[in-house]
Amino acid sequence: MKKLLLPLFIFCFGALHAQKIERIRAVSTHTFVEYAPTVSADGKTMVFQSNNNPYKAWFLYESTRLKSGRWSAPEPIESINTFGQRPTEVNGFQTDFIATPCLSANGKTLLFSATFRGGKGGRDIYYARKINGNWTRPVNMGKVINSKGHDDCPAISADGQRLYFARPLKDKKEGQRCYKLFVARKNKRGYWQAPHPLPYPINTGCEKCPRIMSDNATLLFASIRKGGKGGFDLYKAVLDIEGKEWVELKALEFLNTPKSEEFATLTLPDNALYFTTQGKRNDDIFRTKKLPTYMQLKQNIGVVGVATSAKTRQPIATNILVKLQRNGQAIAGKHAPRQGFRLVLRQGYQYELVISAEGYQTAYQKVDLRDWQKPWLKLDKIVMKPQEVLVAKAHAAPQHLPKKAIGEALLVDVKTGEVISKADEAKALANTTKLARHRPENLRPLESLKAYKKLIFSHLLFDYNSAKLDDKTLGYLQTIAQLLKKEPQLKLEISAHTDNHGTHDDNMNLSKQRAQAVKEFLVKAGVDVKRLSAKGYGETRPLVPNTTVANRERNRRVELKVL
């Protein structure tokens, strides 16, 4: 087999060089290994691991792009390389394992794996920051990220909200160690949540070295899978606009050979791809600028704005929820200080910003980036009006409700038990490009609750990753409150459900909070608290398989069960 592969590899590698793939001579040697290159998005800083030292230990090295376009001679990153066990005659010149570096898009944060003393497991993920041109001492990512085993190959998204990394498996393929790829996300308070495996088609059994590009969407990773050319091949996938599905999976056929290609990074100014593969003797660092069109990154637009109080005319802090205008799906949420907000949104879509602040009415701002070509969009000032007070006591109707909390006219699908508003169904029927999900002959006005054992609300909307009800949902619930008052003998169980994204504990907690939020609104609207119970089931009771975006939308729901 080896006799067959060697000539084939030589042929393929020669073909690569014909495609202007060059070995970076300034950082690559024939004697030592240069591995796992990472380059900042602006193409000015490179970090890699190498055993180019008297101890042949794995250390991290840094090179900078010169004005001539060449790379400088690499320098060891002493603040990291000397952090752990130092090689001495007493310890047999042993050192810690330091490897798989990855720069953030702006080049100011460096992540890597290491075996420093005091870690959470075998190899842990650490980070260092560049301050005044120097790298700080390493900081452990903590027990939420690091396991008792090995955690390797970290990569952080440009917005700092997602961390990708790999954990080794017991399996090997073609003599190579296989890994499973994971992602961890920050919650709205900025804390990392428990990681979970990336879904198919990313994880198929033998993956390695995930790298998320500066567009926050394109993932480059190595994999040994069916249809590959041999060893680890490079693949790309794109996170869809809703942040749920990995699409556009494609092998980097122009680059892959029977040998292993790993640790790929795309840089923006020169549209270059850096990676590791076998050189004449050892692994070296290579670059190619001849990229096919499918390697182009997604275009992002910076959207900035400031919210001001209509009463004081001064800027105020707000919470921003970003929704896709086409389906109302929440895709991002963040807290914005008084100075204003900055969002990074993908070009080619229409968005709606939902801006909220305590004591103010919710404001809505349309953002159309379908044809926007500039890198920035500055919004006009967003004026927040003081909130009208909702006065409600148990067993009594509210004295006043905001306009959007007035009861919605609701319809129930007698076949499925799903509840929608008349306005939403009219929009669906009028949309000639998309058929309504509910057949008109199955829809009936919701005028009584006792006629149904269970009602399903897939259209009750909450702020992103929170239990805060939006204004439209208040309208739905006000109608339910009115019906409950007409039928005082009825008791309800309120159950909230999520899709299968996120951890089980997070989903259970979030669903409990959402069920409780619905219960509290109904009580404030005049329903006796003794008639209501609230339960959260997380992802444990899906209506349909969580295999598509549409199915997951149906599974994110609130149900009312008549007891």
UniProtKB/TrEMBL annotation:
PROSITE patterns reported for this sequence: OMPA_2
**Signal peptide stretch:** 1-18
The record places domain OmpA-like at 447-563
Could you state one GO cellular component term attached to this entry? Answer: cell outer membrane
The scientific name of the source species is Microscilla marina ATCC 23134
Cite the SUPFAM superfamilies for this sequence.
Answer: DPP6 N-terminal domain-like, OmpA-like
Any Pfam family matching the protein: PD40
Annotated compartments: Cell outer membrane
Q: Which UniProt keywords are given for this protein, alphabetically ordered?
A: Cell outer membrane, Membrane, Signal
Gene3D superfamilies per the record?
A: OmpA-like domain, TolB, C-terminal domain
Question: From what superkingdom does this record's organism come?
Answer: Bacteria
The identity of this protein, by name, is Peptidoglycan-associated cytoplasmic membrane protein, putative
Q: Which InterPro entries match?
A: 6-blade_b-propeller_TolB-like (IPR011042), Bact_OuterMem_StrucFunc (IPR050330), OMP_bac (IPR006664), OmpA-like (IPR006665), OmpA-like_sf (IPR036737), WD40 (IPR011659)
